[in-house]
Amino acid sequence: MKHSKQIQSVSKSVMNFLRNYAWPGNVRELENIVERAVILSPANSLELPEIVDSEATRDKWEHDNSLDVIQENHIRKVLSECHWKIEGPEGAARQLKINPSTLRDKMKKFNIKRPR
Fold first, then answer.
1. Share of the chain above pLDDT 90, in %
2. How large is the angle between the packed helices 67-81 and 100-109, nearest 10 degrees?
3. Could you tell me if 43 and 8 are in contact, meaning their C-beta atoms sit under 8 angstroms apart?
4. Containing H/E element for 9?
């Protein structure tokens, strides 16, 4: 055990938060949140009171406004709207006003792959 605690339960509200949050920072963000919760939980139950119970704090966690996150989300949205077409008059690159090769580079950077 990294923090010498044995978490034996997770409240329904915490589990719902962990399941429903978009995790724009991927698995590292999830890992950091869980580790922080383990440290701050007073007993053997995983708690995130300031996130789950506070509307203002929950909004902060649910809306990561870093440029990379906003850019990635926007690219995903436009790709989806364009049915994952990258080039051409109906392509995402044209809508984003960038070169198709730039779009492909950004997709690689953000690990964006067409869903199967």
1. 24
2. 120
3. no
4. strand 9-10
Neighbours of 74 (CB within 10 A): 11
Give the list of residues 6+ apart from residue 2 with CB closer than 8 angstroms, or none. Answer: 35, 38
- CA dist 24 and 40 (Å) reads 23
The single-letter code of the amino acid at 5 is K
User: Is the pTM for the entire model greater than 0.70?
Assistant: no
- Angle, in degrees to the nearest 10, between helices 26-40 and 12-20: 160
Q: What is the DSSP letter of 101?
A: H
Q: What is the pLDDT of residues 62-99, one digit of tens each?
A: 455 567 777 888 898 899 899 999 999 999 999 999 99
